[in-house]
Amino acid sequence: MSRLQNIKYSILDLATVCQDDTLQQSFERSLESARHAEQLGYTRYWFSEHHNMESVASAATSILIGYVAGGTQSIRVGSGGIMLPNHSPLIIAEQFGTLGILYPNRIDLGLGRAPGTDALTAMTIRQAPVNIPYDFKSNIEALQQYFSKDNSHSKVRALPGEGVDIPLWVLGSSTDSAYLAAEMGLPYAFAAHFAPAQLMQAMEIYQSRFKPSAVLSKPYAMACVNVIVADSTAEAAALSTSLYRMFLGIFTNSRSPLQPPITHGELEKLWTPEQKYGVMHMLSNAFFGSKEQVKEELTDFIEQTGIQELMVISQVFDQKKKLRSYSLLRDIFNEE
């Protein structure tokens, strides 16, 4: 049996805005993608909280989760993640408690400690300086308490939310989150799609230091990576130029909507050698190619990381090509 047949596979979505599209079209594409993923047997469909980015429309994350959960039947829908320093744990417990009641046993709450935006915007959201010390663990514990039935005698209660089963995940892009997830006995998801440098070290820390908890008896790790699968290696390479341009925008501070593909010759004219190096480093855990090529590379990646689940983000400009990539990836995980 293929190693991949034992691995769950899921999708991360930023409600990416494509050039010349409206925000309404971006949301509708997300719902179409989620329905397609559900038919293919994907486990989860997560949105990530970002702010003040022209190319990303997932700022009101919990609302998008409700929109997609309401338009699907069985796939788990959640956050990858909610940036907890931006919110009161009570408000998040109420929001996700409401979602959990409306869509039972289908809602996940992934939690991150990064702002999901620039420093000025983060300060505006929080109405406080961003350099104030933040106790991520204590705020996760507050969420756990609000969701607990034992909180019914507290003076402050999450209503709705109390007693609702909402699985919590610790998200991260460094080793700090790995230590925390292991200590708390929670599932762990690593953002290797943009911050791959500490992936292997974080996975080793999480798996070796994990303490069983009431919700998890053994480690459960997930990594998120960029994946584009096409009918040929050449087609995948062409489609990937949209993603390269998006990451180049991070270095040039030009986060415009997702652009259509260009040739690699045209791409070379857009970046300096230093910018190209930076983009390639951020995308060192990206998998672009034919089904056969991506299957071989993902098999090696999963063996090396020891993950139990793979989450993919596919920044493809053409929606039909994006759905095709999801279909081919599903085939990879289900082949003998």
UniProtKB/TrEMBL annotation:
SUPFAM superfamilies in alphabetical order: Bacterial luciferase-like
GO molecular function, one term: oxidoreductase activity, acting on paired donors, with incorporation or reduction of molecular oxygen
Pfam families linked to this entry: Bac_luciferase
Signal peptide coordinates: none
Entry GO CC: cytosol
Annotated InterPro entries: Bact_Lucif_Oxidored, CmoO-like, Luciferase-like_dom, Luciferase-like_sf
Domain Luciferase-like residue range list: 10-308
Record family assignment: To bacterial alkanal monooxygenase alpha and beta chains.
NCBIfam families named among the record's database cross-references: oxido_grp_1
Protein name, entry field: Luciferase-like monooxygenase
